[in-house]
């Protein structure tokens, strides 16, 4: 019984790890797009940097 539970946990962990690759890639793309929007907005407002 313990062996079955261990194998099930290993399988779930493996599937989670494999699916996380796509999730992290998608999240990285979302963050990149958000950063580009912030940069565009900053350029449009013509704000100045403070030292």
Automatic annotation (TrEMBL):
One CC-aspect GO term: membrane
Biased composition (Basic and acidic residues): 30-40
Signal found in the keyword field: yes
Pfam families recorded: Entericidin
Signal peptide: 1-19
InterPro entries hit by this protein: Entericidin
Gene Ontology biological-process entries: response to toxic substance
Region ranges (Disordered): 28-51
Protein keywords: Cell membrane, Lipoprotein, Membrane, Palmitate, Signal
Coiled-coil intervals: none
Spans through the membrane: none
Family the entry assigns: Belongs to the EcnA/EcnB lipoprotein family.
Record protein name field: Putative small secreted protein
Source lineage: Bacteria, Pseudomonadati, Pseudomonadota, Gammaproteobacteria, Lysobacterales
């Amino acid at each position: 019984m313990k062996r079955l539970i261990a194998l099930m946990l290993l399988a779930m962990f493996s599937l989670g790890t494999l699916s996380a690759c796509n999730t992290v890639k998608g999240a990285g793309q979302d963050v990149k797009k958000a950063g580009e929007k912030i940069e565009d907005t900053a350029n449009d407002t013509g704000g100045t940097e403070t030292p």
